[in-house]
Design goal:
The complex is a heterodimer. Chain A is 37% helix and 17% strand. Chain A has helices at 13-26, 72-87, 92-100, 111-119, 172-183, 215-233, 242-245, 253-260, 285-306, and strands at 31-38, 44-50, 58-64, 101-106, 188-196, 200-203, 238-241, 264-270. An 8-stranded mixed beta sheet of chain A has the order 1-2-4-3-5-8-6-7, sandwiched between helices. In chain A, a hairpin with a 5-residue loop joins strand 1 (31-38) and strand 2 (44-50). Chain B has 3 helices and 4 strands. Chain B has helices at residues 19-31, 60-69, 81-88; strands spanning 10-14, 34-38, 51-55, 74-78. Chain B has a 4-stranded antiparallel beta sheet, covered by helices on one side. The chains are: A alpha/beta, B alpha+beta. Chains A and B meet through helix 4 of A and strand 2 and helix 3 of B.
Chain lengths: 308, 93
């Protein structure tokens, strides 16, 4: 691609990677870049920690781009970083949140797959690993987490789009995420994973129709977040537990985080409902990211006032 | 952008009205190469669910014909995916 990084355009990995270094350099008091592992093709995975430096703060972990073709997802992570750094000290709500909370933001989980979707196959979904005996490459990273792994819907066929890998956390990208979260579990109060499309706000469980012990609270929180989203451009986001709202699935990151003890775990499915699918135009990056930023701030404020 | 081309590739939306149509869609995935956009896979298809799937240009006629033979109403969300891929990166705002 040509040109420079832009928050209102889709950026290839080269630009995103350079941006992670730049945003840290320009905001040393607010942002730090952490190397959490490498991808299957040995690319470094960078996480950005954002928040006013202080000890023992609560944190929210956000990851983007688990599925390669969902380009609006990494665009959101970049947007949120921009919003955080540029409104800190100006917007009262954002300042309060960042003074009292850290965000761990992984702008792109599936780097290898994302590059593949730019250069080889626009609709590539999985990672690029080829550890199976099959000629088919890639694992659905959102079926590779160690929660009900390989049950319910996940496929053991490497040629399927929902292939769950050879074992739980078999993929280095999954391992990097889970290791970081385990090592910071005491501070992480919420886990948010950003996908597209279909405009939904989902919470556990996905692998069973059973309700979580805090179902009613999660449902209220999701309702409030959906209202925050709708307040900006009137976009309607459905919300509810994954299995009942969409369909049962297993090995997914939100269920894994919840089972690990992070009781506020959500999957965002961003715009739209099929008109554009994975081809959401660049003109919709800004409004989409703005409405989701409102929801994230709503959840962050709730976490600050309702968790110890 | 994207070495693989998607000329004449289409994305269909269907809503199965009964279990026969659900079975038909699941079998269709075995006959033709289908990339499910929603849900993630044929496994998840249930009655009355809106299903979006992408079919390559060389298979669209066959898939359309099979759907018509099975009384399956469909909507075409994308007529030519290659054009839409190229349009995605054009800022029209």
């Amino acid at each position: 691609s040509t040109g420079k990084h832009s928050y209102t355009k889709y950026n290839d990995w080269r630009k995103i990677s350079a941006w992670t270094a730049r945003i840290e350099k320009r905001n040393p008091a607010l942002v730090s870049r952490i190397h959490i592992g490498n991808t299957f093709e040995n690319r470094p995975m960078y996480l950005l920690k954002v928040g006013k430096q202080s000890d023992a703060k609560k944190a929210i972990f956000i990851d983007c781009g688990i599925h390669a073709r969902e380009w609006i997802s990494p665009a959101f992570c970049q947007w949120f970083l921009k919003k955080a750094t540029r409104t800190y000290g100006k917007d009262t709500n954002m300042t309060y949140i960042l003074d009292n909370m850290n965000f761990y933001i992984l702008p792109l989980v599936n780097i290898d797959g994302y590059i593949w979707s730019w250069t080889q196959d626009r609709f590539w979904r999985k990672s690029r690993s080829n550890t199976s005996d099959s000629a088919c490459a890639g694992v659905d990273l959102n079926r590779n987490f160690d929660v009900a792994w390989g049950t319910v819907d996940a496929s053991k066929n490497p040629c399927q789009e929902i292939y769950c890998g050879t074992s739980p956390e078999s993929e280095p990208e999954t391992k990097a995420v889970t290791t970081f979260i385990r090592n910071h579990l005491s501070s992480i109060k919420a886990y948010l994973t950003i996908h597209s499309y279909s405009q939904m706000l989902l919470f556990p469980y996905g692998y069973t129709y059973e309700k979580t012990p805090n179902h009613d609270e999660l449902n209220e929180l999701a309702k409030g977040a959906a209202q925050a989203i709708a307040s900006l451009y009137g976009k309607h986001y459905n919300y509810g537990p994954s299995a009942a709202t969409i369909y049962p699935s297993s090995g997914c990151s939100d269920d894994w985080a919840y089972k690990l003890g992070i009781k506020y775990s959500f999957t965002f499915e961003l715009r739209d409902k099929g008109r554009y699918g994975f081809l959401l135009p660049e003109s919709q990056i800004k409004p989409t990211c703005e409405e989701i930023t409102l929801a994230v701030k709503f959840i962050a404020s709730y976490i600050l006032s309702h968790t110890s | 952008i994207s070495a693989r081309r998607f000329d004449s590739a289409k994305v269909f939306r269907v809503k199965p009205q009964n279990e026969n149509q659900v079975s038909f869609l699941k079998n269709l995935a075995n006959i033709a190469q289908i990339d499910f956009w929603y849900p993630d896979s044929a496994l998840h298809i249930v009655n009355q669910m809106e299903v979006d799937f992408h079919v390559s240009g060389d298979q669209t006629k066959n898939v359309e014909s099979l759907m018509e033979q099975n009384g399956m109403h469909y909507e075409i969300l994308f007529q030519n995916l290659q054009e839409d891929i190229e349009n995605q990166l054009v800022d029209k705002s």
